Structure to design on (176 residues):
């Protein structure tokens, strides 16, 4: 049984059929972001399981992971590090290439974003197949970070993205 907080937040997720292409049901979080109470609840729910952990950095995955990850970092008194698509960061970067259903993609973070031994939490709005999240975990480790876990607002359970993550702790607020 989902916790009451998750049941309340579910009301702020809008289903958009056939976006970005036919056959896809997009889970839109913008109604949640527009409501300050729901936004605060979502950030608190993402951070809650990691409050008793030492978290030095929160990695937020482009682009909605920036919106949620930055306030989670503030909640946990941690720094924030953006993980972006290749070519979007202005300084020296570390990159990880990962497989997509049809091809490959690459994500980057600043090479000095995570230092050796820092404890890292990966945050994103949604996990589907898990490719980008798994690449973000690999980025943190390539920099010498210790990944304490991953936290997602939404999981599309049937796609089994959590299975691709090589981490001990994952947290999901809403499952679809």
């Amino acid at each position: 049984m989902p916790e009451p907080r998750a049941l309340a937040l579910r009301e702020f997720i809008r289903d958009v059929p056939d976006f970005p292409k036919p056959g896809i049901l997009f889970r839109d979080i913008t109604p949640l972001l527009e409501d300050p109470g729901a936004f605060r609840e979502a950030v608190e729910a993402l951070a809650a399981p990691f409050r008793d952990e030492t978290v030095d950095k929160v990695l937020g995955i482009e682009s909605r992971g920036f919106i949620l990850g930055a306030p989670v970092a503030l909640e946990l008194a941690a720094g924030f590090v953006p993980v972006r698509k290749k070519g979007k960061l202005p300084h020296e970067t570390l990159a990880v290439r990962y497989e997509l259903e049809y091809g490959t993609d690459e994500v980057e973070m600043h090479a000095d974003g995570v230092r050796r031994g820092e404890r890292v939490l990966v945050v994103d709005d949604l996990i589907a197949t898990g490719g980008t999240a798994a690449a973000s975990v690999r980025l943190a480790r390539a920099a010498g970070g210790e990944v304490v876990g991953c936290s997602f607002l939404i999981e599309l359970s049937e796609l089994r993205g959590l299975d691709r993550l090589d981490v001990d702790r994952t947290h999901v607020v809403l499952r679809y």
Summary: Helices lie at 4-10, 30-34, 36-47, 64-75, 131-142. The CA atoms of residues 141 and 147 lie 7 Å apart.
